[in-house]
Design a protein that fits this description.
single chain; about 250 residues; mainly beta; Immunoglobulin-like; 18 strands; globular; binds copper (II) ion
Amino acid sequence: MPSRNFRRSARGLFALGVVAGLVVGCSGGGSARRTVAIVATRDACSPARIVVKAGERVAFEIKNESSGDREFEGIEGTKIEETLVPAGRTRTINYTVPESEQSLKVKCYVPGGPTTLIEIVVSGSVTDEGGRRPFKTTKSPNATVNVHLDSFVVKPDVTSAPAGPIKFIATNDHGTHVHEIAVLRIRDDGSLQNAGEIEDIDPRRSGDVVLDLPKGKYRLACLIVPGEAGSTVDHYQSGMHVDFEVR
Ligand SMILES: [Cu+2]
């Protein structure tokens, strides 16, 4: 999937009360470190969700626009050391996303005050926890889910499918907007894992992918954000997601 590096940054924010905008970093090429901008304001940090690739090298550029100090720290095994960002200052933290899929979380907080948990979704990674098996598969599917995408809804023809190889066929019904579909697995702790996606489906076109999915709760979502594929809005925020069950 060429040319997506530049937008593998903050692809959405959906924490309550987060209102600040997104700034998408730009990488110059292949192995360049991508800048992911994070803004701390008085009440929160944003975005609340950052999409990265397994093995990707990123630089978190944390800008503290509030009048007090903020701290930024990886939690639950996420290896990002605690960093203090003084009021009005910017700090950069280099980070390499682990190759193996795992739950990544960062805490951005006022010491003794409000905390924002930033979810780092590893996208483009195609294995389950521990890399045991890929989700994306060449096996023949034993179920098919037809999903219609429009501005701004995700409408699958079924609400569940049996565990195993499932073929997702997504059709973009809109006449001008580009949409996409990501199959997000909802972990027990509520965090999201990207199990696979069909990216950038042009108006009135379709795409498909076969994913070998274990039983569990999932969410079908379009993750396009402002500035991406000509969009001026955050598609997820605008309602482009629906829960889905693999039984
Ligand atoms: Cu969309």
